[in-house]
Each structure stands twice: as C-alpha cells, then as structure tokens.
Amino acid sequence: MDTNAVLYGDLERILLTREEIAKAVRELACRITHDYAGKEPVMICILKGACVFFTDLIREIDLPLTTEFMSVSSYGSSTKSSGVVRILKDLDRDISGKDVLVVEDIVDSGMSLSYLKGVLENRNAASISIVTLLDKPARRRVPLEVQYSCFNIPDAFVVGYGLDFDEKYRNLPDIGVLHPKIYGGQA
Ligand code: PRP
Prior knowledge:
Layout: E1 11-16, H1 18-35, E2 42-47, H2 51-58, E3 66-74, H3 77-82, E4 85-89, E5 99-107, H4 111-121, E6 127-135, E7 148-152, E8 158-159, E9 175-178, H5 180-183
Parallel strand pairs: 2-3, 2-5, 5-6, 6-7
Antiparallel strand pairs: 1-9, 3-4, 8-9
C-alpha cells in the first residue's frame, strides 16, 4: 500500500516502516530457529492483532512448528483492571508436553498475557515463551517476562500491521501513531 493512501491521512507519523518491521521479524525468526533447534514448537497466534505479525514470522522460522489460534476478549471495564480474559476461541489441540510460543502484537499493561499464561501453564506445556512485536514497558501494571520482543515503543496510540483502532487500520503495512483527532484525544 502506498504511503499516500487514504488511511495514512489519519496518522500523525509513521513509527516503524515495513522495511524495519521485516528486518526485525527476520532477526527474531533466526533467534527462535536457533533457540528451538531439534524441537517442534507450537506457535499460538492471539487474534486478532497478532495475525499479520504471526503469518510473517512463521514463514521465516526453519522448524517443523505447528500453529494454533486463540481469540480472547476482556470482560469489560471491570475486567480490564482485573486482567481476566474470556476465551472466545480456544486451542484446537492439547499442548501438554509441548514447547509453546505465544505470539502477540503488543504487550501493554501485561494483564491479558499474564492471565493467559496462567491458563496455558495449567495445561502442562513443557515450556511457554512470550513473543511480541511491540512492547510498551512504560504501561506495565503486572510483572511479565517477555522472552522475545522486536521493538520497545513509547506510550502512543499505534495502529497498522495488525493493530487496530475500532477494528480499522489493521491492513496498513507500516505502524503509525494515530492522529488524536481520530480517537478524540488531545492533539
Ligand atoms: C491487545 C493486544 C493484546 C492486549 C495487550 O488486544 O493484542 O492482546 O491488547 O494489552 P494488555 O497488555 O494491556 O493486556 P485487543 O484487546 O486490542 O484485541 P485485538 O488483538 O483483537 O485487537
């Protein structure tokens, strides 16, 4: 998509270009290929935000991995603070004894992943690692160990490459900071 395309008009600036993202994804895939040599990891995509990152990442990993998809949603404002998430679509297969990589687009407060990791730990995986494209450490509310992260980013409203605002902008090939006029924030 050309950066003059309509959706780009809603951005304040581009934070990460598609070239920077592709390079980081390749490097991350190399690390995972190396770290999991001899293993057959299960890679779990957390829908929807991680879908673009996930499909690029798995194609760069040289391992006999398998894929799973999970869809989760918070219960609403009360649960946003408790971090409890509702599982809308669960894994199709048993992960006991498997080396699992949970793939997210962004870790913000860390509440969703912290809860989800607990759920998966109860299923007796051999190991569970967290993989994220973006990390906003300034927003963390609960301790969460993130084993693989491509970019630490500032506390800005980012969209693109799978990340949305009101379900839109996921199809932008780059990651940009959304203009505050779009979400009603202060300029
Ligand atoms: C985003 C993201 C993580 C979560 C991170 O999902 O994909 O799942 O929020 O936030 P946290 O660290 O504060 O828990 P979102 O609820 O926006 O759904 P989506 O992936 O379908 O866009």
